[in-house]
């Protein structure tokens, strides 16, 4: 059987954590991988991870499969186009409007959708216009989460002595109408300076550079700033409570079975405590540390809706879905996709690629 080649297309730093569990499984099979980046990104790869620096290099590599985590990619490159998503089926502006969210917007480019849960699987099947196939696989990024959770049960350094100060994990989205990063900066700094908390912070990669600089510039022995391509799950493991706004990362945090506090979120729910007054923030964080059964049960139910598997097998299922798609010759059964000329022109402009 032919050894397959797989391409990972990266258009944001969050792609690394999604692709690397897939890469590990592919390499274990003795197959080939390569990485290709949008022009505005500087690759942050390990020595063993092959980087293709041009479209021509991709054509020469001739991938059989291209994995995509974002909403756009260089459609003109070879390979079956597989969407693995960069987050859950959440509408940041209204939980009730989730079925109208960008997560379910059919862009007419993907051949295979690898979905996370029964809910989004059924939704994509309902929307199917015959131009793609759907496999419920789970999210590759969560392989790392479940592995770290399991390992933490047996590692003494993760165990937290009751005498130590609590650890806060703060994360924020980037949209001006949704982010809390500027509004809460002075309060986060005050909490750090009080030395009553350990604080770990991270910001969305699209956060304005000046805001990112402010958080990076904070210096204290009880403070750590994590870049988007750092291991955020290690930070979540070390923490006792998360503070967030409307970033979808808060839903990932729920799977660690820890309390969640949101600030002026657009998606309130019984799985978190929402606070609207900066002056009440620290007291709310302290309150959240005392777990209540109702909130914890709500978190567990939310997790069941978001992800259909409680294991580290999602990457394997994605690869098996690709195997099935290829072995059954399903690409040839798909209906022709829409031309989408305007979107294609925009992608070519982003990639600065104009060859036919």
Give me the secondary-structure topology.
Blueprint lengths: L4 E6 L4 H14 L3 E6 L13 E2 L2 H7 L3 E4 L11 E4 L28 E4 L2 H10 L5 E4 L4 H12 L14 E6 L12 H10 L3 E6 L5 H9 L5 E4 L5 H7 L2 E4 L4 H6 L5 E4 L9 E3 L5 H8 L4 H14 L7 H14 L13 H11 L5
Parallel strand pairs: 1-2, 1-4, 2-3, 4-5, 5-6, 6-7, 8-9, 8-11, 9-10, 11-12, 12-13
Helix pairs in contact: 1-4, 1-11
Summarize this entry quickly:
Strand 8, helix 5 and strand 9 form a beta-alpha-beta unit. The relative contact order is 0.15.
| Oligomeric assembly | single chain
The strand line-up of the biggest sheet is 3-2-1-4-5-6-7
Termini Cα gap: 32 Å
Helical fraction: 25-40%
Count the DSSP helices. Answer: 12
**Rg estimate, integer Å:** 21 Å
Average pLDDT score = 92
What's the structural domain tally? 2
Percent range for β-strand residues:
15-25%
DSSP strand tally: 13
Q: Specify the structural class.
A: alpha/beta
Annotated CATH architecture of the largest domain: 3-Layer(aba) Sandwich
Q: What are the secondary-structure elements, in order, as H or E?
A: EHEEHEEEHEHEHEHEHEHEEHHHH
Morphology call: globular
């Amino acid at each position: 059987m032919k050894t397959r080649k797989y391409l990972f297309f990266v258009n944001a730093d969050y792609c690394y954590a999604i692709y690397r569990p897939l890469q590990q499984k592919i390499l274990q099979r003795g197959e080939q991988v390569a990485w290709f980046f949008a022009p505005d990104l500087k690759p942050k790869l390990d020595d063993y991870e092959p980087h293709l620096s041009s479209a021509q290099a991709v054509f020469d590599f001739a991938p059989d499969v291209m994995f995509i985590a974002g909403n756009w990619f260089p459609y003109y490159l070879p390979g079956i186009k597989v969407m693995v998503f960069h987050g859950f089926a959440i509408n940041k502006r209204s939980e009730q409007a989730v079925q109208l969210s960008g997560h379910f917007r059919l862009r007419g480019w993907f051949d295979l959708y690898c979905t996370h849960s029964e809910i989004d699987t059924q939704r994509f099947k309902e929307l199917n216009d015959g131009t793609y196939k759907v496999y419920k696989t789970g999210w590759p990024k969560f392989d790392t989460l479940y592995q770290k959770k399991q390992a933490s049960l047996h590692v003494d350094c993760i165990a937290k002595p009751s005498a130590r100060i609590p650890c806060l994990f703060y994360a924020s989205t980037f949209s001006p109408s949704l982010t809390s990063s500027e509004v809460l900066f002075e309060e986060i700094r005050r909490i750090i300076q009080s030395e009553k908390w350990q604080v770990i912070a991270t910001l969305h990669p699209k956060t304005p550079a000046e805001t990112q600089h402010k958080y990076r510039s904070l210096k204290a022995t009880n403070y750590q700033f994590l870049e988007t391509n750092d291991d955020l799950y290690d930070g979540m493991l070390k923490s006792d409570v998360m503070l967030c706004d409307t970033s979808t990362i808060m839903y990932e945090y729920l799977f660690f079975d820890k309390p969640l506090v949101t600030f002026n979120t657009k998606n309130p729910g019984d799985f978190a405590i929402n606070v609207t007054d900066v002056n009440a923030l620290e007291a709310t964080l302290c309150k959240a540390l005392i777990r209540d059964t109702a909130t914890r049960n709500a978190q567990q139910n939310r997790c069941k809706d978001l992800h259909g598997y409680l294991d580290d097998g999602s990457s394997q299922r994605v690869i098996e879905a690709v195997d099935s798609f290829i072995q059954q010759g399903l690409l040839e059964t798909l209906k022709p996709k829409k031309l989408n000329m305007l979107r294609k022109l925009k992608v070519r402009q982003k990639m600065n690629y104009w060859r036919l």
